[in-house]
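sry for the spam today, last one i promise. struct tokens for design, 494 residues
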């Protein structure tokens, strides 16, 4: 530690010391700034406290003196900082030494832990391997048991279906030769028979078309022995759905519904009793847009339905249609069927758009052009439908509880048909998509059992319900009953 303070600190003595330039510069450069004697600190403070001991002030007098002043100030500042940092540095060195010793000890412990962990991992791997082998054996045993159970259920479920499916396959094979003729006759029925009542439809089909095709000598067109166009137009589930939607259950109404849902030309309904209109509203639901010719906003409704693909019902038309509908009726499409011009305006055509025209006229006389452009459907109430409706009115008047029961039974039967068709379709779809070991598909077996349970569920047909309700009504009426005696259904009820 430097502690020597010169006794002579006059300017002359300072000049002598600074005269030895090399020695003076070396003393400044190599000054032991970390070990300054407290006497020197005390001796220098009067200078530091002097406001004129400022490098900026002194630089105006002498730049060299300003440099020495700055050096003195910085040396003192460094020493003061060093005095605060040095204990901390020593403490840091001691802590680093302790840390190194602790780390060395930790390394030894970690090496021992790694050895133990390696041993533990080896033992754990052996344990997991043994446990996995045990689990795989258990799972394989459980899978085998499940497969046996599924196989027994599937064999039991398909045993009774074998005969029915075999008969269905044989039926399809027999009809393979007659399919073309059946489709030809059905398309003719859809195109031309809709306008006729039941009697003329039967005559046209069984007295004209079928004998003509059977009379062809080449037998190029073969027909099924018991041909029925309804069998190709709809199945039992579709018919049940239509009945739930409000379609009368008589044959002519079912034929009309089949024609309406399959015809390519726009259907034109002759429906004075509005039975067809009621069914159409229930069948199409929210997709249906209803309007009338001459109604305000008719053009906007038509264009919106064309763009959005809704079903447009034009009701209460007369024998002539608006000329603005001619491009639509004659299907004058543009842009390869993607648009149509309505009143000179090109409107995009949605592929799901459908037009239905409805007339309440009982015996209209439409233009031949309109009859060629549309599929005419005669929804006039039939004798069978009238009988059922009158009987329902009699039952509703005398025994409303029986009428409600009848309606509920008919709806239940229709729901059963729909559910049965959906279950059978789902079952056949699963069987067709099954690949490999399909015994693992538990949903397939569950679907089969559910289908069989539904098939075995007993329910009455509408004819049986009608007969039972008729007998119940007749039995509950007094004798003689003026209601039955004066009712048009008296011959059938008796």
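last one done:
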């Amino acid at each position: 530690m430097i502690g020597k303070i010169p006794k002579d600190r006059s300017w002359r003595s300072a000049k002598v010391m600074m005269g030895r330039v090399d020695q003076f510069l070396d003393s400044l450069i190599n000054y032991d700034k970390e070990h300054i004697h407290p006497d020197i600190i005390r001796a220098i403070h009067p200078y530091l406290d002097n406001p004129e001991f400022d490098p900026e002030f002194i630089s105006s007098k002498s730049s060299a003196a300003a440099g020495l002043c700055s050096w003195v100030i910085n040396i003192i500042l460094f020493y003061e900082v060093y005095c605060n940092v040095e204990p901390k540095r020593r403490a840091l060195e001691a802590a680093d030494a302790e840390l190194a010793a602790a780390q060395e000890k930790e390394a030894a412990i970690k090496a021992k832990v790694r050895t133990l962990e390696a041993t533990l991992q080896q033992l754990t791997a052996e344990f997991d391997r043994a446990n996995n082998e045990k689990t795989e054996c258990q799972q394989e045993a459980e899978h085998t048991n499940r497969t046996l159970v599924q196989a027994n259920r599937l064999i039991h479920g398909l045993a009774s279906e074998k005969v029915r499916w075999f008969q269905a396959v044989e039926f399809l094979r027999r009809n393979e030769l007659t399919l073309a003729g059946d489709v030809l006759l059905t398309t003719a029925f859809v195109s031309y028979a809709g306008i006729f009542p039941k009697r003329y439809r039967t005559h046209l089909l069984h007295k004209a078309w079928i004998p003509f095709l059977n009379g062809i000598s080449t037998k190029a067109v073969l027909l099924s022995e018991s041909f029925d166009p309804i069998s190709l137009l709809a199945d039992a589930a579709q018919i049940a759905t239509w009945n739930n939607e409000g379609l009368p259950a008589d044959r002519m109404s079912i034929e009309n519904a089949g024609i309406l849902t399959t015809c390519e030309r726009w259907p034109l309904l002759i429906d004075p009793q509005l039975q067809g209109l009621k069914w159409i509203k229930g069948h199409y639901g929210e997709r249906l847009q209803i309007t009338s010719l001459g109604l305000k906003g008719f053009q906007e409704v038509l264009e919106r339905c064309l763009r959005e693909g809704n079903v447009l019902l034009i009701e209460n038309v007369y024998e002539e249609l608006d000329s603005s509908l001619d491009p639509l009726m004659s299907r004058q499409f543009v842009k390869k069927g993607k648009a149509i011009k309505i009143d000179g305006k090109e409107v995009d055509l949605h592929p799901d758009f459908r037009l239905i025209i409805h007339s309440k006229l009982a015996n209209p006389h439409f233009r031949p052009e309109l009859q060629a452009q549309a599929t005419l459907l005669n929804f006039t109430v039939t004798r069978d439908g009238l009988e059922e409706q009158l009987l329902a009115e009699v039952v509703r008047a005398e025994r409303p509880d029986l009428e409600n029961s009848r309606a509920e039974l008919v709806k239940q039967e229709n729901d059963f048909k729909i559910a049965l068709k959906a279950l059978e379709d789902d079952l056949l779809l699963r069987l067709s998509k099954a690949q490999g070991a399909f015994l693992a598909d538990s949903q397939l077996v569950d679907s089969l059992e559910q289908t069989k349970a539904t098939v075995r569920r007993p329910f009455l047909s509408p004819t049986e319900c009608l007969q039972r309700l008729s007998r119940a009504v007749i039995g509950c009426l007094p004798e003689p009953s003026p209601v039955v005696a004066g009712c048009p259904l008296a011959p059938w009820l008796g």
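The longest strand covers residues 354-359. ok im logging off now
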